[in-house]
Prior knowledge:
This protein is of the alpha+beta class. The protein has helices at residues 10-41, 45-54, 57-71, 74-100, 139-164, 172-197; strands at 102-104, 111-123, 126-136.
Amino acid sequence: MIDDFVYPTAESRMITFQIGAICVNWSQIDAHLGMILGKYIKAPSAHLDVATSILDLSRKCELIKALAFIVEDRKSYAKLEKALHFLDNDLRPTRNRYVHDSYSFFTGKNTRKIFRTKVVGIQSFKKELFTRSEQPITQEELTTFNSDLDIFSQYIVGHLMAMILERSKLKEDAIKAFDEVSKEAYGNLAAVIKRYRSPSTPKPD
């Protein structure tokens, strides 16, 4: 149990907490993608559970984008396509690194060990085999990533809600409020995407 484990520092304890939070946030995103897919294909829940349990996240994203292209207006599709591309090509690889790397807290430093085999050219006509590398890890870095996942979730849940709501049965002020919240959610996500695209933003190996 996490409460029974003696962490060397408060920072190392919070790093472990944030890694767990990444897992929880990711499972929620995956579940919401499954719900969106179900709305598009109008499949019974049991059939949908079978399909989504087989499909990995990348395939879900591609299938959702294809179906959205058929039924969504161009503006809604463009937003969804951009969001899902960001999820699959930026957030997913980062999440995999944080979740599957090895962490060490007992050397006086908080470090993340990356086990990945690659041949690297270190000098002209000379290459070397690397199987692991090590990087410092901080609570702040993981907290920022969890915040990015939260922002993505807010957008994708908003898209799901837009598919569920029957606008014809809502009052005008309710529709206006929902549209404003949705616009803000996408604006926040667009800002995160822009930050990831910036050359000055560090990316985990």
